[in-house]
């Protein structure tokens, strides 16, 4: 049995620790832009969320993104994130 350690991150919605690879990364880039980083390879400060509408709603409610990225989150970012959750849910 392999005991390779899988990096875990805390979801900004439900607060659970999960495998980083299963999560969606929201990134604050070095020039203060907020993007949804599907590849997880860009530089910047990241927040992680489960790819589910439930966690998205929780994150909106508890302002998890604001707290995690320490800045105001533009409405467009939430809209993009909601769209992302929607398309994941349909797969
Ligand atoms: Zn979650």
Can you describe this structure?
This protein has 91 residues and is α+β, with helices and mostly antiparallel strands. Helices cover 35% and strands 22% of the residues. It has helices spanning 53-62, 64-69, 75-90; strands at 8-10, 17-19, 24-28, 34-37, 45-49. It has a 3-stranded antiparallel beta sheet. Strand 1 (8-10) and strand 2 form a beta hairpin. It is globular, with a radius of gyration of 13 Å. The model has no long low-confidence stretch (mean pLDDT 90). It binds zinc ion. Residues 11, 13-14, 16, 50, 55 line the site of zinc ion.
Characteristic terms for this protein:
about 90 residues; alpha+beta; 3-stranded antiparallel sheet; two-stranded antiparallel ribbon; 3 helices; about 35% helix; binds zinc ion
Summarize the structure.
The chain is of the alpha+beta class and 91 residues long.
Percent strand: 15-25%
Task: State the order of secondary-structure elements, H for helix, E for strand.
Answer: EEEEEHHH
Q: Percent of residues in helical segments?
A: 25-40%
Oligomer: single chain
Radius of gyration: 13 Å
Report the major sheet. 3 strands, antiparallel
Structural class label: alpha+beta
Low-pLDDT windows of residues? none
Bound molecules: zinc ion
Query: End-to-end distance, in Å?
Result: 32 Å
How many helices? The count is 3
Mean pLDDT: 90
What strand line-up does the widest sheet have? Answer: 4-3-5
Q: What coarse outline follows from CA principal-axis ratios?
A: globular
Tell me how many strands there are: 5
């Amino acid at each position: 049995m392999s005991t390779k350690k899988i990096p875990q991150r805390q979801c900004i919605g439900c607060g659970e620790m999960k495998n980083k690879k299963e999560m969606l990364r929201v990134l604050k880039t070095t020039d203060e832009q907020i993007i949804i980083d599907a590849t997880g390879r860009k530089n910047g400060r990241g927040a992680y969320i489960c790819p589910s509408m439930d966690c998205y709603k929780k994150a909106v409610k508890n302002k998890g993104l604001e707290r995690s990225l320490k800045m105001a989150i533009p409405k467009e970012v939430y809209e993009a994130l909601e769209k992302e959750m929607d398309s994941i849910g349909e797969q």
